Amino acid sequence: MDSDILIVGGGAAGLAAALSAAKTNPRLKVGVLEAQPRSGKKLLATGNGRCNLMNERAEKEDYAGDADFIAPALSLYKREYGRFWEELGLLLSTEDEGRVYPGVNQASAVLDALRLNLREKGVSEITDFAAVRIEKRRDGFTVYSEGRALSCRRLILATGGKAGKGLGENDSFTRLLSPFGHRVTRVYPALTCLKTDRQHLSGLKGIRLRGEICLCRNDEVLKREKGEILFQDDALSGIASMQLSLIASPLISRGEKLHALLSPLGERAENIIKGRICAHPTRSAQELLTGAVNRLIALSALKRAGISPVQRADSFTPSQTEALIGELRSWRVPLTGTGGFSQAQVMLGGLDTRDFDGETMRSRRVQGLFAAGEMLDVTGPCGGYNLEWAWASGMLAGKTAAEELK
Ligand SMILES: Cc1cc2nc3c(=O)[nH]c(=O)nc-3n(C[C@H](O)[C@H](O)[C@H](O)COP(=O)(O)OP(=O)(O)OC[C@H]3O[C@@H](n4cnc5c(N)ncnc54)[C@H](O)[C@@H]3O)c2cc1C
Q: What is the CB < 6 Å shell around ligand 1?
């Protein structure tokens, strides 16, 4: 037997599982198999290179997935995380809305701390090992890559999902486990941008707004988000738009017609526009909006309202005035799709959690097999929730796998 415990996938969940297993039973031989030349590549890209590693306010209900399944891992993490990160030597810093980052503001510090501690605990890291098949044997498993095979008594899978281009994205979650009868829910790209036709955002690329964005179907508001909205050529991005993709992505892929509502001036639009027309009747339309709305957004609102930027305020027809107020109160942007998996931060859906025991992360179908992290059908919003799930589920899987071998 090559190892007592092998972990397939050296991302957040896999590294947490390895540490937890080694800590629970230091006599065990634990190894991490990683397809890429180095573990933790995705971690380095998280939080724009700062790694928003958890959220102090995370609750099981914040996640898309079965809350009862999520609860045990999350509560273990809540009890243990202070000690976990302290033992790793990583100082933490909490920012707005409970978002936690490494104090040194570098994602690389998180990975360095993990790898240093894994090395000190004797965990082996086997890179360039892309698992392609698993064989169940009476006393454990054999994991095959192209040309290599390694055996173990307990196996933890933490291979992540399809999101994020060039960061280890893959479909191992289904390829490795389907032969054992493990079910997979339909998967969608999430925490990604919302696509529209170019004409709707023409000239606005690069603008960042703070405000409210609503996801709507006909007259129904499906979800409201407040925060940063970033304009791209043909897409709405930024955290607020990305949060909406958690709901929009499955609906759009089913062919539902959705739109986003933006509100550059919100409910104040009528007072501001009518007040300014009264106070400054000789100003041009563009001058009228100076200081109230981003200049380029003002120009695009005027265009949609059928008003020339040089038209004098006192020459607006009543319907032009109403149209302008409407555009600045609720600007409708039809949605045509999402940024897809390449631009997504997470995969919504994954391994069906009914096939796993949330108290232990054990497979209910294959004895001795565990899973953790994004490959499972558990998805959180932006703000550290997805890494928190990865650490939490990895920690629990590593602990229970090691306890079984005591
Ligand atoms: C750009 C970006 C930014 C993000 N920022 C944040 C953030 O700030 N906060 C947050 O909470 N979440 C963030 N996320 C989401 C978060 O990174 C993931 O949810 C989390 O990393 C999932 O951890 P995981 O260990 O399950 O999977 P992964 O991190 O994807 O790790 C899986 C690992 O398994 C390896 N692997 C896959 N298949 C095999 C195989 N067959 N054999 C061997 N190895 C294999 C992969 O190479 C990879 O290293 C971000 C995601 C992206 C893409």
A: 8-14, 33-36, 41-42, 45-47, 51-52, 129-131, 158-160, 163-164, 167-168, 170, 172, 345-346, 373-374, 384-387, 390
The closest residue, in CA terms, to atom 30 on ligand 1 is: 160
Are the beta carbons of 277 and 269 closer than 8 angstroms? no
> Which pLDDT belongs to residue 135?
98
Give me the number of domains the chain comprises. Answer: 3
Assess whether 176 and 206 both reside in one domain. Answer: no
Q: Tell me phi and psi for residue 368, to 5 degrees.
A: 90, 0
Range(s) of the domain holding residue 245? 193-263+332-338
Are residues 211 and 178 part of one domain? no
Q: What single DSSP character describes residue 262?
A: E
Strand partners, 55: 99
Q: How confident is the model over 183-230, as pLDDT tens digits?
A: 999 999 999 999 999 999 999 999 999 999 999 999 999 999 999 999
Which pTM does this prediction carry?
A: 0.96
Q: Are 301 and 201 in contact (CB under 8 A)?
A: no
Residue with tokens 């990583």: 90
Give the list of residues 6+ apart from residue 382 with CB closer than 8 angstroms, or none.
52, 191, 239, 242, 243, 345
Contact between 397 and 156 (Cβ < 8 Å): yes
Q: Return the closest-CA partner of residue 240 out of 251, 252, 250, 226.
A: 226
The phi and psi torsions of 214 (rounded to 5 degrees) equal -115, 145
SS3 356: strand
Give the list of residues 6+ apart from residue 330 with CB closer than 8 angstroms, or none: 261, 262, 263
Q: Note whether 166 and 215 are same-domain residues.
A: no
